[in-house]
Amino acid sequence: MIQTIHDVAGLSVTVMGLGLNGGGLASARFFAEHGAKTVVVTDMKTEAELAPSVAELRRYPNIRFALGGHHVEDFRTADIVIKNPGVKAEGNPYLAAARVVETDMSIFLRLSAAPILAITGSKGKSSTVSALHYGLRQCGMTAFLGGNITVSPLSFLFETNANTPVVLELSSWQLADLARCPQLKPKIALLTSIMPDHQNWYGSMERYVADKKIIYRNQTKDDYTICNYDDAWGKQFAAETAGTVFWYSTEPLPPHLLGAWIAADGSARIRLRPKQDQLLLPPELSVPGKALKQNVMAASLALTLYGVDMQKIPDCMQTYSGIPHRLECFYQTEQFKFYNDSAATIPEAAAAAVNAFDRPVIMITGGTDKKLDFTALAPELKKAKALFLLAGTGTDKLIPLLQAQHTPYFGPFDSLDELLKALRETFSTVPEQTAVVFSPGATSFGMFKNEFDRGNRFKEAVRQCWQ
């Protein structure tokens, strides 16, 4: 029903899910500022829990708050409901009462003419979108970054045009909300590694992956689909998409395939035409570990396909240093270098973290379970110099696996302060500089608001403990 910005005027809008990460806030502000008659902001959380977001919206006279629970009348009488991606639509009586349900993403895609470079996956998507956005800007383009990375694209809608690429990180939940949105037609769709995630929501890998596939549903041969050659699901995506397929891999690609790979000397090579290989990235990058190098390589491949001058890419991308909460080096002492990898919310991400360094690693892991399998993580944790566990239902599943393979550990601890105090007392001296890596491999519910709150509190606790 909204085809131009003028269609917003006079609407009654309900924003379902205010939250603290920007999406609901940006949606409420957008409709309030562009002529909506009323904007009802509703959330199961209380006003006290949402205080920072509520304070941001107090100045709008056409916003009404309905917090601490939902009321079906707010949905039944609204012209349009804007749903937070974290709200499950299936079996939801409030959404069932709504006339029209949209999201901030669907509204943006309708109203913006910007070319879309979209990325999804289970692991690595935030680092990849960030690297791609960084590369576009470093190479001289005006570009924007939004989506699951906690920036609503509505916040920069009016700065976009047909010449400003927009990089979107899309979660499976966001893609599910866009299943009937023909405007989701990325010029480039990139799929990172697919691993079991959100199984407490989906119940099966098939349903989870089905939502991931929505990213390329509307593509044509004039668009590009970038698939991970090392991932079993990548072959299925490549077979299904109508887009032109390019691959990326941590090993040399077969000669008949086009794409990028990491060579024996650690550099990344690219093949855009048969038998024409070129340098894409130098052997040494600013980010640590093979997994992050793979993400930067995938982003660099997308840059090339979008038309960025290939001669600029090696120098531009060599300086990319990563983003907060993804193997973020934030503090250093004579003995320790501290890394915040709080965005590692699945066991496979924590396994990658322990393997990302060529120095001794003290690993901090554990958290809340979301019906995932920790079997593959346990043997990787044997490689750590020491292992400290943060309490949680996921940790409860991990401990028997550690005990079965005789891997020693400290904890589990009920707080970061308690854990870090024990770590400092246990390792008052170390023979060489050691990486202390906080990579939970689980969600953050209970002890923290979300993974970003968890990461920020870890950084603050480290600074307090080692100041």
Please tell me about this protein's structure.
The protein is of the alpha/beta class. The chain contains 17 helices and 20 strands. Strands 7-8-6-9-10-11-12-13-14 form a nine-stranded mixed sheet, sandwiched between helices. It has a six-stranded mixed sheet with strand order 15-16-20-17-18-19, with helices on both faces. α6 packs across α11 (290-306) and α16 (416-426) packs across α17 (451-466). The longest helix is centred in the middle third of the chain and has 17 residues, at 290-306. The relative contact order is 0.09.
List the topology elements.
Layout: E1 12-16, H1 23-33, E2 38-43, H2 51-57, E3 63-67, H3 72-76, E4 80-83, H4 93-96, E5 101-102, H5 104-111, E6 116-120, H6 125-138, E7 144-147, E8 166-169, H7 172-177, E9 188-191, H8 199-202, H9 205-212, E10 224-228, H10 232-240, E11 244-249, E12 259-262, E13 268-273, E14 276-281, H11 290-306, H12 313-318, E15 328-332, E16 336-340, H13 347-354, E17 361-365, H14 377-381, E18 386-390, H15 393-404, E19 410-413, H16 416-426, E20 434-438, H17 451-466
Parallel strand pairs: 1-2, 1-4, 2-3, 4-5, 6-8, 6-9, 7-8, 9-10, 10-11, 11-12, 16-20, 17-18, 17-20, 18-19
Antiparallel strand pairs: 12-13, 13-14, 15-16
Helix pairs in contact: 6-11, 16-17
